[in-house]
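User: structure tokens for this one?
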Amino acid sequence: MAFTAKDVKELREKTGCGMMDCKKALTEADGDMEKAVELLREKGLAAAAKKSSRVAADGLVYAYVDEAAKVGALVEVNSETDFVAKNADFKDFVDTCAKTVIKENPADVAALLACKAAGSEDTVEALLRDKILTIGENLIVRRFARFEGEVVTYIHGGGTHGVMVLFDTDLAGKEGFAAYGKDVAMQIAAANPTYVSKDEVPSDEIEKEKEILRAQALNEGKPEAIVDKMVNGRINKYYKEVCLLEQPFVKDQDLTVAKYTAQVAKELGGNISIVKFARFEKGEGIEKREDDLAAEVAKMVK
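Assistant:
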């Protein structure tokens, strides 16, 4: 079956693939448009497999809240370069992932990939493979969090850091709560706490920290009689580092986050409790590849 330049253009618009790839696919499919699409997708799977070994440490942290359903999602999708992270097509895919998390409530990333994507007949995994084909980089849906209830989100630096906080409160609709919620989310982004309160810190973690602090004090030559007192003082400092409510509030160092929360609750005439939070930092824990340009050029000229 013959095909025209118009067919090539149509296939390119459908798939986002290059002109020559579309022409080859139509030739191989004898001009059958649907078969050509399938062939390109099959080649995309092969391309995705080749790209999967490449480090994807850039990308985007993104948040979406369904106000009507009172459900929020925070997701991280990684790409190889920040250039792709700014691509509208990539951002649309990340938005789809977040909306799918809200709608389908998957247990983990594997379950999310198997879900039918929000606003699509394809699965998230199928869309991911298509994006790898059209964008040309390894892409990874890395992680997500999903909270139900009174949720506030904050994205910093265009997607370098993202925070989602769940509150138990009767003040969500009151003027002033949104600003407070954003303050708390920004606090988490900046100070990177591990827990909400002291009660959440595992006892074995505290005992281990006390052992370290006690050894430090003895190594400093402190008298045995005052070591335990010093350790207790330093444990309180440790709580201020790892527990959100114990941290000095970033906008007013004279207040802890707990005192700031109580102050806002009193001013607004209700109750506020911070239930939990999620904090994602783009690419954290992923070892980025160090490219040696000189070595690459040397290989090319051999």
